[in-house]
Specification:
Strand content: over 45%
Radius of gyration: 15 Å
Number of strands: 13
Length: 159
């Protein structure tokens, strides 16, 4: 597991946020456009693990920012994705810490340290039942990473 430098993996804004659409960005590998467009304005971090690339994007919307996590296989095919956040909650991506061989932690919202476990084999995971509050995924029966955390309501945060 290693963090990727901006010369290895980066993004450029494809379309800015508007009243009708979220910002999108194009992914670049080794400085070359891939043609892959994802939702998100700011690439916060990217890492490589067992040939997969994991990218963390925020929307750059004050007071309602979301964290979007994308996992791509070695051929840059999207294999899993999740969104963290809640309406009217403030999120700031911070304190990313790699925990080899297959986990990492970070802070975003809810006054909690979120933990992401990367899975060598996909596992069964129903989106509405398997993820903590504040984590959303498109409907799919399997996942390639697990998100763990217990966000606290805005008024009950412990610092």
């Amino acid at each position: 597991m290693r963090l990727l430098s901006t010369s290895d993996f980066t993004a450029r804004l494809a379309s800015p946020y508007s009243d009708t659409a979220l910002a999108t960005s194009e992914l670049l590998l080794d400085g070359k456009p891939t043609g892959l467009i994802v939702t998100g304005a700011v690439l916060e971090a990217a890492l490589e693990w067992q040939g997969c690339r994991i990218a963390f994007f925020t929307d750059d919307i004050p007071f309602e920012d979301m964290l979007r996590i994308y996992m791509f296989d070695a051929g840059m095919t999207l294999v899993d994705a999740a969104v963290l956040g809640a309406m009217y909650s403030t999120g700031t991506f911070a304190e990313l810490s790699l925990q080899p061989p297959n986990a990492l932690t970070f802070r975003f919202f809810g006054g909690t340290a979120w933990r992401m476990v990367l899975l060598a084999e996909r596992e069964l995971g129903l989106p509405c039942l398997s993820d903590p509050s504040g984590v959303r995924r498109k409907f799919q029966c399997f996942r390639h990473f697990r998100i763990e955390g217990k966000p606290q309501p805005e008024g009950t945060r412990v610092v």
